[in-house]
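Example record

One chain of 287 residues, shown exactly as stored in the release files.
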Amino acid sequence: MMDADPTEQLDRWPQVDRGGIEEIKEWLTTQPHLPAIKEHEMAMFLHANYNNQEATRKTIENYYTMRTSYTELFTDRDIFSDPLQTALKIVMFTTLPGETKEGYKMAYSRLLTSDATHMNHLQVLKVLTMCMDLWIKLEGNAKGHVMLSDMEGMHLGHMRKINMDAAKKQMAYAQEALPVRLKQIHYLNVVPFMNRLMMLVRPLLRKEVQEMIQMHVNVSTVYNTIPIESLPNEYGGKAGTFEELEKSFKETLYAHSDWFREMERKNLVDESKRPPKPRRYMFGLFG
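Predicted structure tokens for this chain:
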């Protein structure tokens, strides 16, 4: 018999109120359109929402509904397929070792090539969304999460490849559905056209997410927030070289290929079973 997946152990979520899990179970009996959800998954959602029941229920609903309806991002997630293999040659994502002084876990992404010729923004977003899903599976129980996005090598040719419809859906999922305790977003090596890029992106971001963003023209200014030793070697850290970090997380992606296929198959909403919305009464009591 194979050992149980350690990421599915309920004791990974000590901050989660066990009574809250029972409340979620009871609520799920009134939501027949949602798939079966395991206790450790309920704990993951509760942890991300600091045990707030209303927020947790909204996140659960958004998570499964978006994963069902946003087919561009959540179908054909075979990491060995040609489109995703091409995307993995364009962009890298990796977790960083250690924690911030607050106890937050960190992830880092960057372009692997400045050549935008073969850039398929949708496939890149799909790969990055898969990476974020895996990050939360592995480190979702952290006190908080920090995202570092390195813009080195980005130029206007990449902007012309942006798929705004896919970007809207990916950002909606990351903000409204992904069970993450996002605390900080750092843009490193900010490009001269960042203002133009933010004009496109800012309307897609909630105000509290906009306030998390910190811009860094170079890497040195992030040292005040991110432990230097947790950064890639090229930036004075000890986490490993870009090549080593890229290879390591890619191997982790490959090792979870079956998990991605299972997630694609099971995390679906059955709209035919969705309870009807309450009728709108006077003064919009239920609206």
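Notes: Confidence is low (pLDDT under 50) at residues 282-287.
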